[in-house]
Amino acid sequence: xxxxxxxxxYYATPSGRHWVLNDVTLTIxxxxxxxxxxxxxxxxxxxxxxxxxxxxxxxxxxxxxxSISWPMGLAKSMHGSLTGKENARFACHIQGxxxxxxxxxxxxxxxxxxxxxxxxxxxxTYSSGMRARLNFAxxxxxxxxxxxxxxxxxxxxxxxxxxxxxxxxxxxEKSSFIKVSHNINELKKECNxxxxxxxxxxxxxxxxxxxxxxxxxxxxxxxxxx
Amino acid sequence: xxxxxxxxASNYGIMxxxxxxxxxxxxxxxxxxxxxxxxxxxxxxxxxxxxxxxWALYFKEFKIRLGKSKTGIIWVLLExxxxxxxxxxxxxxxxxxxxxxxxxxxxxxxxxxxxxIVRRGITPIPQGIKxxxxxxxYPGVKPIDTIFARFILxxxxxxxxxxxxxxxxxxxxxxxxxxxxxxLCFQAIGIAAMLSLGIGLLLGIYGTFYESxxxxxxxxxxxxxxxxxxxxxxxxxxxxxxxxxxxxPIVHLISAFRQGAFGTKxxxxxxxxxxxxxxxxxxxxxxxxxxxxxxxxxxx
Amino acid sequence: MKKSLFSMTKMLFxxxxxxxxxxxxxxxYMFASDRYxxxxxVYITExxxxxxxxxxxxxxxxxxxxxxxxxxxxxxxxxxxMLALLDKDLNLREHFTNSKIDFVSKLADxxxxxxxxxxxxxxxxxxxxxxxxxxxxxxxTFDREFSKKILTSILKHSQIFIDTxxxxxxxxxxKFFEAEVKKSEDALTAEKNKLRAFQNKYKILSTSIATQxxxxxISTLENQLAAKKSELTSRLSVLSxxxxxxxxLRSDIAGLKQQLTVENARLTSGSGGxxxxxxxQFQDIxxxxxxxxxxxxxxxxxxxxxxxxxxxxxxxxxxxxxxxLADEALYPNRPYIIITTSIIALFFYFILSIMVATxxxxx
Lengths: 226, 300, 363
Description:
The structure holds three protein chains of three kinds.
Chain A: E1 2-13, E2 16-28, E3 33-37, H1 44-52, E4 59-64, H2 84-94, H3 99-113, H4 128-140, E5 146-150, H5 158-172, E6 176-180, H6 184-190, E7 193-198, E8 201-205, H7 208-220
Parallel strand pairs in A: 3-6, 3-7, 5-6
Antiparallel strand pairs in A: 1-2, 1-4, 7-8
Chain B: H1 4-7, E1 19-23, E2 29-32, H2 39-68, H3 70-93, E3 98-99, E4 102-103, H4 104-120, H5 128-131, H6 143-172, H7 182-209, H8 211-220, H9 239-245, H10 249-262, H11 272-299
Antiparallel strand pairs in B: 1-2, 3-4
Chain C: H1 2-31, E1 36-46, H2 66-77, H3 80-90, H4 92-96, H5 113-123, E2 124-129, E3 134-141, H6 144-202, H7 207-236, H8 244-268, H9 275-312, E4 315-321, H10 334-362
Antiparallel strand pairs in C: 1-3, 1-4, 2-3
Helix pairs in contact in C: 1-10, 3-6, 6-9, 7-8, 7-9
């Protein structure tokens, strides 16, 4: 459950403040599977970071309940100098796992990521696909109540995509997620709610179809309706 | 399309027990099946996470430090010894074997032990934030954790280096401190560590924002060793010199450490409390600066 | 949730800031006894102090001359001995254990000597000004008169201390030379006495004068003898052997010859009383006297020099500012203490509350 209360977020740029969110109030319920829609540069990633608690709003506050994952995405959360294994161990460490748990979890991650010898090489040598796989594998190793996914499933080959979809499906039984994707069909299939981010306003719709409708309406017009 | 349609979570079929999280101004209750944490629970959970994050970062730092270059770690361990030997040799060349009745090597070595603790606060502790920036994308990892982790690692390495220094002096020359007041030594080390943490955090914050801050500070602290009473006795300076240098807290800390280790007399302007106050002050300032800028640090 | 978080910070603020500051303020404004400060400053002068041509202070060679003396004085003032003297003079212990004084700043009734000394050292401050070579003293007690009395007493004992120091320096140095002078003087007197005894014994003032007399006598006698002999020879050619003039001449010659033998014997005879022997003895005595006189003179010179030197190294305690009488109780400096406590407590609060907030953010 994530509740945003009059949240405003902006970045200071040389030409004044760039607003990502302007006085947004919304609640993402416990079992929502939210698809996030918004044009490029609207601040979807920032919104994900706000949801995950990596970043904080300039104004307003965010109430969270349940465990929320870090924004899984283009694997910014991995240290280039560390190997894949060490990154996995690091993630286990910060989740507060014991030594034995770490050992088994890391083996599981290695298996899931399936990146071969690269697992023992520094992450900076990885391709973006490999990074995403590793990052996804690490996140899947832990049980979160809510996953924050930032255009992750778009990467990786078909086999991995299938594998991750299967793994994710298992998680979906008990977890919710908030997902950013440009693949409308995918969202339609997986989500039961939609969130549209446009012109620093975010609105949650009770069905993904309604959200897609509104989003496309926005895109077709020069000016936002509101 | 209005907000009211979605604000009430109970509309969306939450089953079973619900916990009220907050009541908004318009009497709408925010509720969830997840039990909200009480402040005590939050503190406990936070502390557990805090601890695990610091240890995770600590191991990561250690691995990188060890992995990058073996010479790097050897240098860290031998730095006090080498510095001591070089400076002591200069004293021995001008035929000064003891300072305040303490063997030159011990005297200089003890100075470096304190000085290097503070020096670590200028480099490499502040660089911790930048070099771990990617790991800050984990919600549990905060910028201050990287500083803490580095601080613990550096202090740990420095402790080994200090023991190495005293041990090598004992083995090779058979000299050792008498430690008439070991508690004072620990006090001096503790205050120096606090100062180091404060400086490290402060420089870490502003060094991450402004590239030039770190560089400028490093340039301006080059003569710090000479101005800290590491390589000579404060008692040998004229009053005017002592008064000027007594603004530097390291001078007091070194004097305290030597007093505890060898029973030497501290200089006239010696005031350990000044160093304590200044350390608390700097640490407080750095915490405030951190708290005000903690999210900007993540964005960087 | 918001409320409890707020209250947690508030509690922290209460216990880390408000309570300590309140306790400290309460104590200082309600209980703490006033302390009055008396000030004085002294310096030590010496006749002449050698200054080294090089400033070697950086190499650790320092504190020459009066700087050292003043540091000695400083450690004397902070010594148990000084405390004992003050306690005897002013009954210091009674003043500091007075029940009117608040319990924190009071000296415990059953305080040991060491505790008493420690307490005494917190009540006086001695600072040494390197450049002016000035020793600044201050004392803080719970009575304005008493503060002044303590300093006055300290200065009195310091004066005595410096005087003793001077005496020690001069006496230890001069004693040696004095003894030497005395010794050589005695030796000289003894030698002179010997001479006097010698003169009395042989009834001569000086052997050389006596010899001179004998030699003159001998030469006069020989001259006379030669004159008589030549007169005899010339008279024998006209007068007979039996002529009374010849007989008188011959008896004169015989007399002269005898006298000559006697005189010669006086000059060079082998046994004891001969003049040459006496002369040798006399010369020995004279040489010894001369030597001892020289030694005496040298010792006397050294003694005089040492005396001057000692005088040059005499120290004088000069009171620059006599002990003052406090007008008002400056200590404890309540606003200063409370502001300092507040700042420190505030920073403690910042550190702790931010630490707590940081930890909570990790949850």
